[in-house]
Design brief:
Chain lengths: 110, 113
């Protein structure tokens, strides 16, 4: 089966940097997603990593280490609107069915 | 207009009633999924479909059924709703030919009383 772990909640200050970690154990691997979800809304796509390394996209970056079963999402220059839940999802080998972690609720305060 | 549309967006129903949630997409994607979301439990897969008339059970399929009669539509049914099926339901799509990104509908809030 699949096991995906991420912290339940994090807080940070506006303008700061925050790193949200995700560890996983899956049967095979076909990529890892990060989604952002505001309360009561649909998850929106942030990033997809399938190779090791860092992918940068504006204020958001995502890192993957397949050998360690580890990823992180880095958010820079935090804004109040970044307060949301961040979902880590892994696509295991063979099935291409994404499995989601429980999400990390990020609270950004002034 | 949203590419993945769910109806109804909100519904309150009584225990034992049959309820259907509909999902329609204009993206031309072959793969469609139904997830439910509960506080603290994240998104859990109910059913998924790789193409028309292809149906596969997910992690929590008991108490649910689905239908995929056309590529653009994937409906979820609760034959006899129970209170612990109160949740936020999401339909999602993916194009297996051109990428791995999953696109979500706006969600359907279902309350069973």
């Amino acid at each position: 089966g699949q096991n995906i772990d991420q912290p339940t909640e994090m807080t940070a200050t506006e303008g700061a940097i925050v790193q949200i970690n995700c560890t996983y154990q899956t049967s095979g691997f076909n990529g890892l997603f990060w989604y952002q979800q505001h309360a009561g809304e649909a998850p929106t796509f942030l990033s997809y990593n399938v190779l090791d390394g860092l992918e940068e996209k504006g204020r958001f970056s995502s890192f993957l280490s397949r050998s360690k079963g580890y990823s992180y999402l880095l958010l820079k220059e935090l804004q109040m609107k970044d307060s949301a839940s961040y979902l880590c999802a892994v696509m295991p080998g063979g099935s291409y069915i994404p499995t989601f972690g429980r999400g990390t609720s990020l609270i950004v305060h002034p | 207009d949203a590419d993945v549309t769910q109806t109804p967006r909100n519904r309150i129903t009584k225990t034992g009633k049959r309820i259907m949630l509909e999902c329609s997409q204009t993206k031309g994607h072959d793969r469609m999924y139904w997830y439910r979301q509960d506080p603290g439990l994240g998104l859990r897969l109910i059913y998924y479909s790789f193409d028309v008339k292809d149906i596969n059970k997910g992690e929590i399929s008991d108490g649910y059924s689905v239908s995929r009669q056309a590529q653009a539509k994937f409906s979820l049914s609760l034959e006899s709703a129970i209170p612990n099926q109160t949740a936020l339901y999401f339909c999602a799509t993916r194009d297996s030919r051109s990428g791995n990104t999953i696109y979500f509908g706006e969600g359907s809030w279902l309350t069973v009383v």
